[in-house]
User: Which sequence fits this backbone?
């Protein structure tokens, strides 16, 4: 099968590296999606192991579609009887860019009619009405420049929903996005026992928890369910195999130096709860603290944070002042590398230091800068 993995803009290479570590050597990227070839075991493994991919889609067909007739015929030609049951709960998801067929709701309606017609024609004894009280199947229709790509979503809920973040807090990072940020730092499972990791604006704890999951090599999708496992065409033994592989790879005996702090006691309370839900509360040290007081006797650490942005003018001014103080705090840690995600204009000026690297990203459709400050390298005898 051809499998498509939607990726947040700017993280294509990050997800490619994750795929390479999972054994996928060929992974070209097209229009915000990475394509790989795989089987049903790969579907299970990708859903379990991918840290920054958004979903795992099966690519069913691709064809020109300038008219509703062309769309109907192209969708009808797909062998839906091999993928869906007559009681499948069919949900449509679509988007259209630079195409004649721009009305997404109407497009989804035509495509679903084609699916139902095909199932009625090909499934022996199939009724003309469908209960749709069975397993959920999300059908994607993506039309780009009058070419339609039809997909079947194996994940269901997005892969950022790991299952541990159940309490709400102000503007949290998506788990997949947070994990991608971590992959763009010097923090890795290989150095996790010797290199401290800290987030002094940890909020509900997403960055420290994702760093911990990565350091312990815990599969992020291990404690959730996926749509594909409820389908009759899927062999559940394959998911069992994938989960066994995931558990075998875990390194829960590692001693980590992961810190999360925030000035808001409520945030820390939520962060601790989420860490417990993720099963990593014994590895992370959370504390209520002001970033101005952050310090560490440990060397060569990684500081990764998503400070408050500020929306109103008064908030922006306070954020500017906070970033000045944050910059002073960071400069007191000359051996540490720092990575900051922010939408604050002229961030470097307020932080008091030009970044060694800059990357443009979008967090929840908000344009942001990802600023990297590289610390001193460890000496050979350290």
Assistant:
């Amino acid at each position: 099968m051809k499998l498509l993995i939607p990726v947040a803009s700017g993280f294509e290479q990050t997800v490619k590296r994750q795929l390479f570590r999972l054994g996928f050597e060929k992974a070209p990227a097209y229009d915000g999606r990475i394509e790989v070839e795989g089987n049903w075991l790969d579907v299970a493994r990708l859903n379990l192991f991918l840290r920054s991919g958004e979903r795992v889609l099966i690519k069913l067909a691709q064809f020109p579609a300038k008219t509703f007739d062309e769309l109907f015929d192209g969708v009808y030609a797909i062998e839906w009887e091999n993928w869906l049951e007559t009681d499948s709960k069919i949900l449509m998801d679509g988007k259209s860019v630079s195409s004649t067929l721009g009305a997404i709701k109407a497009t989804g309606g035509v495509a679903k009619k084609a699916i139902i017609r095909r199932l009625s024609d090909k499934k022996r004894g199939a009724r003309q009405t469908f209960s749709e009280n069975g397993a959920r199947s999300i059908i994607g229709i993506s039309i780009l420049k009058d070419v339609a790509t039809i997909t079947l979503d194996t994940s269901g809920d997005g892969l950022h929903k790991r299952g541990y973040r159940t309490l709400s807090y102000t503007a949290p990072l998506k788990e997949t996005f947070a994990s991608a940020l971590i992959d763009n730092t010097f923090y890795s499972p290989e150095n996790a026992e010797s290199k401290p990791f800290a987030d002094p604006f940890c909020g509900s704890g997403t960055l420290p928890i994702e760093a911990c999951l990565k350091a312990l090599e815990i599969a992020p999708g291990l404690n959730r369910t996926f749509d594909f496992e409820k389908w009759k065409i899927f062999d559940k033994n394959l998911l069992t195999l994938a989960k066994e592989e995931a558990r075998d790879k875990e390194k829960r005996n590692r001693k980590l130096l992961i810190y999360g702090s925030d000035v808001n006691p409520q945030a820390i309370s939520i962060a601790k709860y989420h860490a417990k839900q993720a099963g990593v509360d014994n590895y992370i040290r959370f504390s209520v603290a002001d970033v101005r007081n952050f310090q560490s006797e440990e060397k060569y650490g990684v500081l990764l944070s998503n400070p408050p942005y500020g929306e109103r003018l008064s908030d922006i001014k306070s954020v500017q002042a906070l970033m000045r103080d944050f910059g002073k705090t960071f400069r007191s840690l000359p051996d540490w590398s720092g990575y900051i995600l922010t939408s604050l204009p002229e961030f470097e000026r307020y932080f008091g230091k030009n970044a060694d690297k800059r990357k443009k990203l979008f967090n929840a459709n908000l344009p942001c800068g990802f600023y990297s400050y590289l610390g001193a390298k460890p000496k050979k005898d350290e």
The first helix runs from residue 12 to 21. The two ends are 49 Å apart (CA to CA). The chain has a mean pLDDT of 94.
